[in-house]
Amino acid sequence: MPDRQSPISDQSGPTAPAASGAGAPVRRLRPAQLLFEPQADTPEPERFFDLDSITDPAELLLRSTELALAFRAAAERATDFQAVAAAQLADPRRFDALSPTEIADRVEWTPDYAARMVEYGRGLLKQPRGGEH
């Protein structure tokens, strides 16, 4: 038999303490109303890593070159991860192994490219990982 002194929560929000008396109803607290409408943020002008604000051509060349190299490195690393994932999905030891055609369909590759990525990924998986002994 439940204790009559403790209010039963229906998980619909916080409860206020019951009024004095054992059988008093439990009062629910409501969230406070907004008294103002929050200002809508005006969209900022589009910036590309603040390159458009650099006026010195030498500095612009240096910064844009740094970004291009960083993006190339990131794209190469992402491609390696794609290849590893493709190789893992095509692993014949998996009960749900996918064919290169099925992998190609998932990521909009050609079946030939998917097959090459699977082979590349298998090569990456065979390499010892750096930093591990």
SSE pattern, N- to C-terminal: HHH
Our estimate of the beta-strand percent is: under 5%
- Cα distance spanning the termini: 62 Å
Determine the number of helices (DSSP H or I, runs of at least 4 residues). Answer: 3
Q: Helix fraction?
A: 40-55%
Q: Regarding quaternary structure, how should these chains be classified?
A: single chain
Gross morphology is flat
Mean pLDDT across all amino acids: 80
Number of distinct beta strands = 0
Low-confidence stretches: 6-12
Radius of gyration: 30 Å
Q: What kind of sheet is the major sheet? A: none
Quickly give the structural class: mainly alpha
Explain this structure to me?
This protein has helices at residues 57-89, 100-107, 111-126. The N and C termini lie far apart (62 Å). The longest helix is centred in the middle third of the chain and has 33 residues, at 57-89. The protein has 3 helices and no strands. The protein has a domain at 56-124. Helix 1 (57-89) packs across helix 3 (111-126). Helices cover 43% and strands 0% of the residues. With 133 residues, the protein is mainly α.
Topology overview:
Blueprint: H1 57-89, H2 100-107, H3 111-126
Summary keywords:
flat
